[in-house]
Amino acid sequence: MTVTSLDPHPLPPWPGELTSLRVDEPSGTWSVIAVHSTRRGPAVGGTRAMTYPSLREAVADARRLADAMTAKVAVAGLPMGGGKSVLALPAPRHRLDDATWRRALEAHGRHIELLHGTYWTGPDIGTGSADMDELRQHTTYAFGRAETAGGSGSSAEATAVGVVAAVRAAVREAGRPGLAGLRILVQGLGAVGLRVAELVVAAGARLLVADVDPARVAAAAGLAGAVEVVAPEAVTRTPCDVLVPGAVGGLIDLGVARELPCRIVVGAANNVLADPAAADVLAARGVVVAPDFVANAGGAIHLVGREVLGWSAAQVLARAAAIEDTLAEVFADARARGIGSVRAALDRAERSLATEPAA
Ligand code: NAD
Ligand code: PPY
In whole angstroms, what is the distance from residue 347 CA to residue 316 CA? Predict the structure, then answer.
């Protein structure tokens, strides 16, 4: 048998190190683990639990997210590699009974354990600290358990602090002195987005908010005198100084990039750009883009900092705030070389990958 006889290949090629798939038939759940790189250390990245139109799309999502994790931890200077996993559920999580969900988590934990520490997980969309407590019964390799269970708890504060640090750097890059008076639109008012909203209001920004969940909108509406509520489907058509996508990825495709009426984009969500070429379109229009894998690294800094490197909460927050300086350097490099900020940040990740992480 020749290699070509395997065509069409069940999965497209990918430069990552490993894609591992296991199905738990009783719960109807696929567990997909993508390890992009272990060059700097064990691959880290959360477990995303959701439904997908096909297994191929679940694999593609895990791989794209793993790519971003490698760049994220490399730019953040963490001695780790990048990976991600996906639990492709048979139905939305809120419709699964508890026994089915626990079965799916058990199967995922056993899958992670089979990789003997090549991949460490943590929370992502659809999973939280309580799920990490449960996973830890089946694998050692899970960060982000509740503090009462011996973990480092929620990473949302550090992520939000890092995102706002990125907003500050991007605002300066756009030639504005500070956040005061700017129209900042936060899409997705979950653990990260709501805290970002609080912090930018405290810095004097004018807040615009959007969420599909009215309860989250109501929570944000209480933050400041005149919060403007934007319908979720109108987010990319609403004029603003700074757009902070903080829901799910893929908000900005090529069409959106050509028309987006905002001066600055700072990604709190992972993979905000649905198409890598959208970065060039935005750059050509003079839109300042803070690459999400730089801006939202506070979560990884929290989980790895607290649980691997023994940092205090204060050290974690200081490292998250330092994203402002990292991003300022990325912008300066992009300007000097006449390239986009996403390219400059990816080059920075490459340089970091080529050197040994500090002990
Ligand atoms: P979360 O689940 O707490 O919040 C997500 C919010 O987005 C929810 O309020 C939800 O109702 C809302 N939402 C979903 N779809 C929407 C839509 N189409 N329009 C508007 N709102 C919508 O999640 P989180 O922990 O706040 O994380 C937010 C994003 O940041 C996620 O994409 C996550 O992967 C990313 N991220 C989080 C961390 C972290 O430390 N939590 C770290 C890095 C990246
Ligand atoms: C992310 O930042 O997107 C993550 O997935 C966070 C993370 C970092 C390290 C271990 C597990 C999850």
Answer: 25
